[in-house]
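Write out this protein's structure.
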Amino acid sequence: MRVCVGTVVHHPEDARIMHRQIRALLAAGHEVTYVAPFTHCNVTPAHDVRPIDVPRAVGVRRRKALRAARKALRRGSRDADLLIVHDIELLLALPSARHRPPTVWDVHEDTAGALSVKGYLPEALRRALPPLVRRLEARAERRLHLILAEDAYQARFTRTHPVVRNTTYVPDQPPAPPGEDRVIYVGHLSEARGAGELVELARRLRPHGVRLDLVGAADPAIRPVLRDAQREGLLDWFGYVPNRHALRMAEGALAGLSLLHDVPNYRQSLPTKVIEYMARGVPVITTPLPMAASMVGTVGCGSVVPYGDVDAAVAAVLHLKENRELRVAMGARGHAEARKRYHWPDHAPDFVTQLEAWAAAPHTTRPRPHHRVLAA
């Protein structure tokens, strides 16, 4: 089976796209053409995909990226058995129905709900866009196959669609036990994801000998705050790090932080970082988003703190610092639950089988020679 995968919004090393879905397809013997913003993100494509380079869609100026994406998707899907797109924007750049293979939209988030935290959008647009997004989603459901990242997303659609959750790779054995002098946040940094609280937390933890590591890209509005905090010696901000390396950096931390705010796009989902911390044997400190709080409480792998309450977050970190047996037990319970339920290789075969059925191509194809990067 030949599959064309496209994104102009996500980083080419996105864990869901590259390291779970594409890797699963390659492991099953299928061929992948990958349309992604390699140059923009300074990424060298993996040797076993056929890459097509496109500009990245950033902020409100996305017309150039979508024009390039339309041409790239047309080229990439010309001889494909299946096309998978990962951005709602690409629904506007698909080849015509007569000139494209069966097409899948992977629904990563509640797009309409996410508009409320897009600071680059004028307020009038944030109010006007949600109805348009819902109409675009309904049109996509009529014309395309859909994959959902969360069960809760089913409510937005009239039919039931396969759910491919954001799981991770979980080591067979727990990594090093949690230490006592470092906490970590892995993921994109923004105001709605608690960047302000993280900086203040770092300030208050410094007298107690606990340092904060931030691993992830940041929204433009929050970058000056992070740079100032790093210059002040409050924290280390590493910027974007590929997921597999970022998770190794989490190993041995005292706690993994998920201080997301109570916004619509986060209420329906379990933050992937919670599962990733658990997979690496790190206790979780999370705000009370329903799925995150339920997971942490049921498994007993961390603490839940109120939204925006830095005092509570400080207390949770120091409690773990002072109780080695507690943090080791929490880390072990989290790892065991992640290995049992959220190990991606356990779910990958079902994902691949579903795509093969949609493409009507149950058998694998002969690998194609490696290709150079193609500019769109």
